[in-house]
Amino acid sequence: MTSLMSPASLTSLSTRAPLSADSPGAMGEVTTGTTLATLTAAAAQVGFHGSSTLSGAPASIVDALKDHLVSLQMPGSLEVVDDVLRQLDGGALSPTAAMERLLAAQVVLRRQRRLTAAIHAARLPALKTLDTFDFAFQPSIDRGQILNLHELGFVTRKENVILLGPAGVGKTHLALSLLVAAAQHGRRVYYTTLADLVLSLVEAERLGRLRERLAVLKAPAVLLVDEIGYLPVTSGGANLFFQLVTARYERASTILTSNKSFKDWGTIFGDAVVAAALLDRLLHHCHIVNIKGNSFRLRHYPGLALPDDPPLAPRRGRPRKSPPPEVTERHLG
Ligand code: ADP
Ligand code: MG
Questions:
Q1: Atom of ligand 1 nearest to the CA of 165
Q2: How many angstroms separate the Cα of 20 from the Cα of each of 29, 121, 190, 273?
Q3: Among 98, 238, 249, 310, which one is least packed by beta carbons within 10 Å?
């Protein structure tokens, strides 16, 4: 897989940028944000206002070339133009190769800026990539399966991925890494925890804007729903999440992480019937990554015995016997 951005440059991104993009729909269509002032400054830096020191081309033509790059808002090309011309004059580059290098510099810059913007808009809690994942620490993970998932065929096929395992084993790390890989390939991605997602759906319903909110959450090619199982979901919240899962079913990929096995999902969602219906859709086209091992966070305390996951807080009210009537496909936008 071609990496469009080095891990070092990815790490330098501020992933908590205060973007107002509450909507994943805002992702991926980001302009470079280059201002004329920035370009002018860049032009000055590369000697745009002085006469060219290059022997081959008259200074006026080099100046005109840089002028065009400024007008076309191509700071990437502007940055390399002197170097390219020097190599062209020295015979290190053919005219065709020189043109290619000039344009490639701009393409790389544009991709990096789009990726940065997409990652900001996706609201990732941290930037994680495979480069920093230590497979040796977690031998239960099938490295081949993870590498294969990073080829992103599952996104094209609109399949899901569910990562299961106790706390600290790397579920979120791997899920985020898949999200970054998808963003690198220009796919719209979005991160949320189940708790935040349900809150936003409940709020949208309260404001009479559920249909719009579901439409927005349907848009990303990959939606990561993290932390299923840490907090119980109200029955209303479970129904809303079910509507979202149904809306995305066979239309877009959803990645989920959970510290609970599927048999406990009835407790998480407060209703065995809704949980079964959820799993029925999620598992139909799904890759399961079941991680069994120790917490990476606690790797320096190998003898530490942790309590098992505490049971979820009991829910109030009587459990429903059947799915509520509003949970039907015809209500989906
Ligand atoms: P989980 O989601 O399973 O609770 P995380 O993915 O949040 O666990 O991992 C906890 C921390 O440990 C994160 O900072 C993550 O980057 C790191 N981590 C987990 N597993 C590994 C690993 N095998 N190699 C490198 N870092 C890891
Ligand atoms: Mg996690």
A1: 3
A2: 15, 8, 14, 37
A3: 310
